[in-house]
Design the sequence.
């Protein structure tokens, strides 16, 4: 017997480490086995998934299931250095492979009989028992598990084939009113995909509701519109060598409605994410300034989901020859309301600085501007300062308005606080601010961070408990501004296994 090792189907999902990683991977495995009608090996598949995922490092990883016809293979792909890999009981074979950036641990399970149950057998069995509802539930969970619009057509096709049809083609429109294009094509026999693609090239996609006969030479074909919220987003086309059973048509029609909702949700999410990425970019400096005589580096990482605008911001811009202004701030909350205050703060700081206002005067006027926003206002902590190049280093005039304290590192390794705490912005209209001066001699470093650094939590401990940030900075003697910032970021990431739940901004200035 010749074994065909080319994959018949591939389904993948990304996971983050933590307590839910193993149950999430087992649930994903159960959904895949259901979609592939391989429930006979589901128990072993879930056990292998749990064992492989339990050994994953504290970094995001990917679980990939590959259908090989006579077997199914699980792969756990992760960024990790080489490590030992023990045997997996029950697996037909297992191993570990490496690329320059990935470790891939895998195991393979033989399928009983070497092939999956035929589509007609599965449809007849599902119609008599709970398999129908179980299939739709698991298919819905698979579809809902991705917010990537490009992945939805692939999931649709791989769920349908070979359960309901021999092949599935999913057409989508790039724009709501644009022409349909073939987004994904899958066939139970991958050797026939290219030929089928040519036959579908001239097929006319219907625009009416309900299943419509599609004329494809050599196939009994049906097209099901993918319609959500009154808009047709695409078409799901199925093909068989014989007539479609009534049960298969009902199941496909139900699945098409669920697939359309998943596609619509994914598109809305992607549009919102794109809009918020553009908004986020507009709230940050447009480009990196030229700063002769000043070594600086900034790290900014929003911790929210892709569709959420972070509340942290930074800025560094020239005011005159040899003079710059810098700011690092944290707006209470996230989303559009926080973005409005962030935009107000960044533009106010730049405008007033170029109008000749001093650091304290700028912060005071920004406080009143935020209060004038009324109910839309958000509290803001801010570290704002002016840098002047002088003989023997840099002079800093700064205001720390409710912000985590700025730290200065000396070449000797000594660390001290620069600036005393003053009122945060957007709370007290009568607040007055004063600028304080500090000097950065050759090799001195000034560090400003947001509370995403100081309040990084591991259990009941915070990173800055007992001067934790000062100790970290003391280890950065003789490092460049970039190296200092990267050292702080790595320390924040390594402090706790959980992903960061707060935005992070780090600003490092170093006198030459």
Sequence:
């Amino acid at each position: 017997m010749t074994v065909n090792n080319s994959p018949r189907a591939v389904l993948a999902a990304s996971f983050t480490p933590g307590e839910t990683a193993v149950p999430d991977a087992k649930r994903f495995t159960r959904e895949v086995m259901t979609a592939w009608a391989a429930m006979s090996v589901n128990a072993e598949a879930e056990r292998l998934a749990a064992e492989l995922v339990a050994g994953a490092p504290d970094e995001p990883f990917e679980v990939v299931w590959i259908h090989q016809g006579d077997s199914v293979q699980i792969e756990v792909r992760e960024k990790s250095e080489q490590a030992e890999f023990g045997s997996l009981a029950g697996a037909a074979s297992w191993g570990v492979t490496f690329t320059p950036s990935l470790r891939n641990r895998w195991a393979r399970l033989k399928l009983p009989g070497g092939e999956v149950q035929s589509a007609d057998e599965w449809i007849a069995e599902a119609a008599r028992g709970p398999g129908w509802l179980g299939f739709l539930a698991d298919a819905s969970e698979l579809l809902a598990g991705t917010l990537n619009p490009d992945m939805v057509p692939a999931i649709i096709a791989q769920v349908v084939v070979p359960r309901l049809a021999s092949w599935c083609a999913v057409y989508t429109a790039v724009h709501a009113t644009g022409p349909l294009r073939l987004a994904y094509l899958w066939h139970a026999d991958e050797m026939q995909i290219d030929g089928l693609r040519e036959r579908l090239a001239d097929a006319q996609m219907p625009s009416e509701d309900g299943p419509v006969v599609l004329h494809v030479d050599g196939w009994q074909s049906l097209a099901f519109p993918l319609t959500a919220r009154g808009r047709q987003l695409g078409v799901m086309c199925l093909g068989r060598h014989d007539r479609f059973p009534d049960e298969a048509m009902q199941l496909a029609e139900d699945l098409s409605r669920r697939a359309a909702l998943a596609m619509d949700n994914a598109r809305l999410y992607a549009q919102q994410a794109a809009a918020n990425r553009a908004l986020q970019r507009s709230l940050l400096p447009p480009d990196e300034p030229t700063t002769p005589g000043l070594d600086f580096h900034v790290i900014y990482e929003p911790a929210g989901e892709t569709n959420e605008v972070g509340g942290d911001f930074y800025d560094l811009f020239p005011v005159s020859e040899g003079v710059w202004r810098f700011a690092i701030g944290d707006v209470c909350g996230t989303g559009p309301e926080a973005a409005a205050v962030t935009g107000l703060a960044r533009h106010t700081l730049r405008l007033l600085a170029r109008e000749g206002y001093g650091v304290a005067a700028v912060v005071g006027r920004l406080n009143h501007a935020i209060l004038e926003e009324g109910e839309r206002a958000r509290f803001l902590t801010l570290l704002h300062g002016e840098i002047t190049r002088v003989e023997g280093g840099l002079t800093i005039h700064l205001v720390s308005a409710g912000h985590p304290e700025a730290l200065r590192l000396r070449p000797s390794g000594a660390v001290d606080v620069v600036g005393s705490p003053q009122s945060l912005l957007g709370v007290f209209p009568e607040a007055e601010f004063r600028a304080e001066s500090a000097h950065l001699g050759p090799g001195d470093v000034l560090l400003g961070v947001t509370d995403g650094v100081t309040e990084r939590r591991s259990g009941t401990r915070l990173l800055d408990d007992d001067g934790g940030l000062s100790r970290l900075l003391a280890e950065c003697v003789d490092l460049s501004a970039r190296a200092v910032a990267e050292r702080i970021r790595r320390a924040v990431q390594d402090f706790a296994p959980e992903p960061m739940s707060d935005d992070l901004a780090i600003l490092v200035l170093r006198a030459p």
The longest helix spans residues 246-282. Residues 283-510 form a domain with the Phosphatase 2c; domain 1 fold (CATH 3.60.40.10).
